[in-house]
Amino acid sequence: MAPRKKTAPPEGETAQINIKVVPAEVVEKLKTIAFMEGVDYQEVYILAFTKLIDAYEAKNGKIKLKPKGSGLKDL
To answer: What is the distance between the terminal CA atoms of the chain, rounded to a whole angstrom?
Structure first.
């Protein structure tokens, strides 16, 4: 078994999410990558999300986040 690398927590504000339906094969592959690289699987998930967002923004432009607490008035 490969020793786990110590990783720093993500910078900035974090949020916990619950993804209800992910193919089991995808989850197992992500966990296997984490195991082979000796990192926590959450780090692999964060990297996957980050790469997806980067690719989306490269194709479609910067994503504008809606301000918190503004309700529906700014939509």
So the answer is: 50
* Token reading at 47: 């990297």
> Could you give the 3-state DSSP secondary structure of residue 15?
coil
Report pLDDT digits (tens) over 42-59: 899 999 999 999 999 999
Q: Residue 34: how many CB atoms within 10 A of its CB?
A: 19
CB 41 within 8 A of CB 34: yes
d(CA 72, CA 74): 6
The domain segmentation of the chain, as residue ranges, is 24-60
In angstroms, rounded to a whole number, what is the distance separating the alpha carbons of residues 57 and 44? 20
Q: Which position has the higher pLDDT, 18 or 38?
A: 38
**Angle 14-71-13 from CA coordinates, rounded to 5°:** 10
18-46 average pLDDT score: 91
